[in-house]
Specification:
Number of strands: 0
Number of domains: 3
Strand content: under 5%
Largest sheet: none
Distance between the termini: 36 Å
Helix content: 55-70%
Radius of gyration: 31 Å
Number of helices: 26
Structural class: mainly alpha
């Protein structure tokens, strides 16, 4: 069979101008977004102001619109928004970055009105706005110093009172590309705005609820402080927050990077806002990994290793164990790894140990763990167990059988009719594994024929399942 010709500029040129123009015209008649891009490209022949005028009309429509976008039109609406920002970037950005940035900011400022008009539970429309924010950062690299100063003012005018969080996102996008003097001026303006706003907020009645922009503005100041390398200001702003809202690990990481390990140790051990999820914050892998690096910077390697091992014992983190083994002398890592495996096999929470062996990875030990605790596995873990069973089918049929039985038993015991098709598939896999699994089964685990007889007896009235099972045979 002949291969389809690949598209390229050279091959398209061979079609000729007239044929290409007709193809563009045909597509433009069917695709509204593409038609607008073509119009913008044609307008570009008259200069960037003509392109900007077309874009302004489309943004004005967004600003005025009030009707709700029905679900069946949401995809087209999203594509139209994406077409708009792509036009700004492709047609206006290369020739007039300042004009392009003005339009992007104006577009981003429509987000609150747009989100009121469309059900965006999938997040697709928000993705378009994040794409526009990313474009803002890219285009800001082309600005001169005076233009950069004006950009910060435009950002505050367009989004300075936005509660959605895009103001902080735009700040993070543009800050790396702005001159230091511009950042200094922006920080001073924010500092004054925060002071003025707090003074006004003090005059409000205590029982009046309101959203304060000062926390978002303070976060912007921290973003600017990072870009300027002003760690002391970063810390001062962090200390203004409530203790349980302080991101202590971010500050510790910044201090460690700056060579201020003693201060970093204080911050990494401070209670504060945790950006991770662990039963014991003090032994969470994220925090432990950072504290261990701080301890090593302070030339206390034994303490760092002891902390890593204590964390591994508590949560069986594969990442922490890798760090621990990496810092051991040659040949000691093999013995330590075997000790870690033995510890995981003896862990009182086999589910945690299973995840560890999958992440390590040691599928043979995962299978050993499953076979050691055949009654422990919960068929409600449908998001994990089928994948594990599939991995184990070839080399460890007994372990795979145990998991498939747990999944099938849960479906039948709870009469989950919507999952009968999955249950039938599991039963089919059990039949395929039966011979090898039966040969490996220990006392206490029934053979496949007995298992099948039991579920037929206990669930004989679930005709929907048995019909599915018959179809799968």
């Amino acid at each position: 069979m002949a291969r389809k010709p690949a598209l390229s500029i050279e091959k398209l040129n061979e079609l000729g101008i007239e044929k290409l123009a007709q193809m563009v015209l045909n597509e433009a008649e069917q695709n509204a977004g593409f038609r607008r891009q073509v119009k913008a490209a044609l307008a570009g022949k008259s200069g960037p102001e003509a392109i900007a005028k077309l874009i302004d009309r489309r943004i004005s429509g967004l600003e005025r619109a009030k009707s709700f976008v029905e679900w069946d039109k949401a995809r087209a609406f999203r594509d139209d928004l994406r077409s708009l920002i792509n036009t700004i970037e492709a047609e206006l950005g290369p020739v007039a970055p300042t004009l392009a940035l003005d339009r992007l900011l104006r577009f981003i400022a429509t987000h609150e009105r747009v989100f009121e008009r469309v059900d965006d539970s999938s997040g697709y429309v928000q993705d378009v706005y994040y794409q526009a924010i990313h474009m803002t950062g890219e285009l800001s690299q082309a600005l001169s110093r005076p233009e950069a100063d004006l950009l910060t003012e435009k950002i505050m005018v367009s989004l300075g009172e936005s509660t959605h969080g895009y103001l902080a996102d735009i700040t993070a996008a543009v800050v790396p590309h702005l001159p230091q003097n511009t950042l200094n001026c922006w920080d001073n303006d924010l500092k004054k705005a925060i002071a003025d706003r707090r003074a006004k907020e003090k005059t409000r009645k205590s029982d009046d609820w309101f959203y304060s922009m000062t926390s978002q503005w303070a976060g912007m100041r921290q973003t600017i402080a990072k870009a300027r390398g002003d760690i002391d200001l970063l810390i001062d702003l962090e200390e203004e927050k409530q203790p349980n809202a302080q991101d202590t690990l971010v500050i510790a990481a910044q201090l460690l990077e700056a060579g201020r390990a003693t201060e970093a140790l204080d911050w990494v051990r401070k209670p504060g806002h945790r950006t991770f999820n662990a039963a014991d914050d003090d032994l969470s892998p994220v925090r432990v990994s950072l504290e261990a690096r701080v301890l090593e910077a302070l030339d206390d390697k034994p303490a760092a290793q002891a902390l890593r091992w204590r964390c591994f014992e508590a949560v069986l983190s594969a990442d922490i164990l890798r760090e621990y083994l990496k810092h051991l002398p040659d040949f000691e890592d093999i013995e330590a790894e075997e000790r870690a495996h033995a510890l995981a096999l003896e862990n009182s929470a086999p589910e945690t140990a299973l995840l560890f062996f999958l992440n390590w990875p040691r599928l043979d030990l995962a299978a050993q763990l499953i076979e050691t605790h055949p009654q422990r596995w919960n068929g409600r873990d449908w998001h994990l167990l089928p994948k594990v069973a599939k991995l184990l089918e070839h080399e460890n049929p007994l372990a795979a059988t145990i998991l498939y039985r747990a999944l099938l038993d849960d479906i039948l015991d709870r009469a989950r009719s919507k999952a009968y098709s999955h249950g039938a598939k599991y039963l089919g896999q059990l039949a395929l594994l039966a011979r090898d699994a039966d040969l490996a089964r220990p006392i206490g685990i029934v053979d496949h024929a007995s298992y099948l007889a039991n579920i037929k007896k206990n669930h004989s009235r679930k005709s929907g399942f048995w019909a599915r099972a018959a179809q799968s045979c």
